[in-house]
Design goal:
Helix 8 (about 175-185) links the parallel strand 5 (about 165) and strand 6 (about 190-195). Strands 1, 2, 3, 4, 5, 6, 7, 8, 9 and 10 form a ten-stranded mixed β-sheet that branches. The protein starts with 8 loop residues before the first helix and ends in a 6-residue tail after the last helix. It folds into two domains: about 5-135 and about 260-315, Bordetella uptake gene, domain 1 (D-Maltodextrin-Binding Protein, domain 2); about 135-250, 3-Layer(aba) Sandwich (D-Maltodextrin-Binding Protein, domain 2). Helix 1 (about 10-25) crosses helix 3 (about 55-70) and helix 1 (about 10-25) packs antiparallel against helix 11 (about 280-285). By secondary structure, the protein is α/β, with parallel strands linked by helices. It contains twelve helices and ten strands.
Length: about 325
């Protein structure tokens, strides 16, 4: 589980608490059915590449849910099309509580980036529960001469089109963080999309690509090991786990980007309720913030995020094939 350092005790406790909360969930359906749920295996579709954070998290969560509820929670990785392939499969599944989709803000970006996809989030899905969000960290390979965000901007302006940045694919938070940075900093750097975050991360560490925005929960260990140099954090304030790294906004006023994940289900599946304050404390130790909302609150959060990223897609000029 490289994306969270050494699978620390704090991470294990956080997931255990989250599982306990989900175990207490009562689907708002017929009482007899709710009492029996789950009576057979539940599928968690992950529309991202195997080995990435979403896949690893879903497998760990599925294992704990199986232990708590006595039924297998089977992770079904269906990457492709910038998350469209797996998400479409989930949308077409029976709305009976036995198919869940692990989503991220890739999905809210795709509402405007890919308007012709065969589904729409607010039309074809219902919110179940948010999980967490974390800041992204802007990192460069040590061979890059820039030591600060300002120096990187100056370097990029001196060499337009010469510097590259990696992402886990079009529409992902990593991609949009890079496009937002390009637009707000006024620089010309080239997007290098990968099929997953693992490949992008590996090539930045190896020096094949100069820069990347990555989740702090994933990249922090590489920063502390000196494999990459952290230039800035994408949040509004400095991170508690990398407190010496300034925010990008300290150089580019107004800059902000995060990555978040949650669970949704096909339309017609009644939502669940998750609320556990302990999760907040334990995720904070990893640089992530637990998100505790009712399904209705999560639905509004998704709708607002769609609007936010629609503006950014327009500002950046990003395209699904870039």
């Amino acid at each position: 589980m490289r994306w969270i350092p050494a699978a620390t005790a704090a991470f294990v406790r956080a997931c255990t608490v989250l599982v306990a909360a989900l175990a207490l969930t009562a689907w708002r359906v017929d009482t007899a059915l709710a009492q029996d749920y789950p009576s057979r295996p539940v599928k968690i579709i992950v529309p991202f590449a195997a080995g990435g954070p979403a896949d690893v998290y879903a497998r760990f969560l599925g294992q704990r849910l199986q232990e708590a509820l006595g039924q297998p929670f089977v992770v079904d990785d269906r990457p492709g099309g910038g998350s469209v392939v797996g998400t479409d499969a989930a949308a077409k599944s029976a709305p009976d509580g036995y198919t869940l989709l692990l989503m991220s803000n890739t999905h809210t970006v795709n509402e405007s980036l890919m308007p012709n996809k065969p589904f729409a989030l607010t039309r074809d899905f219902v919110p179940v529960a948010p999980i967490n969000y974390s800041d992204l960290v802007m990192v460069v390979h040590p061979s890059v001469t820039a030591k600060t965000v300002a120096e990187f901007i100056a370097l990029a302006k001196a060499q337009p089109g010469k510097l590259n940045y990696a992402s886990s694919g079009p529409g992902t938070p990593y991609h949009m963080a890079g496009e937002l940075f390009k637009a707000m900093a006024g620089v010309d750097i080239v997007h290098v999309p990968y099929r997953g975050s693992s490949g992008a991360r590996t090539d930045v560490i190896g020096g094949q690509v100069q820069m990347m925005f990555d989740a702090v929960t994933t990249m922090r260990e590489h920063v502390t090991a000196g494999q990459v140099r952290a230039l800035g954090m994408s949040g509004k304030t400095r991170s508690t786990v990398l407190p010496d790294v300034p925010t990008v906004a300290e150089t580019v006023p107004g800059y902000e980007a995060t990555i978040w994940i949650g669970l949704i289900a096909p339309k017609g599946t009644p939502p669940a309720i998750v609320s556990r304050p302990e999760v907040r404390r334990d995720w904070a130790a990893q640089g992530a913030v637990a998100m505790t909302m009712t399904p209705d609150e999560f639905g509004k959060y998704i709708a607002d995020d769609i609007v936010k990223w629609e503006r950014i897609v327009k500002i950046s000029g990003a395209k699904p094939d870039q």
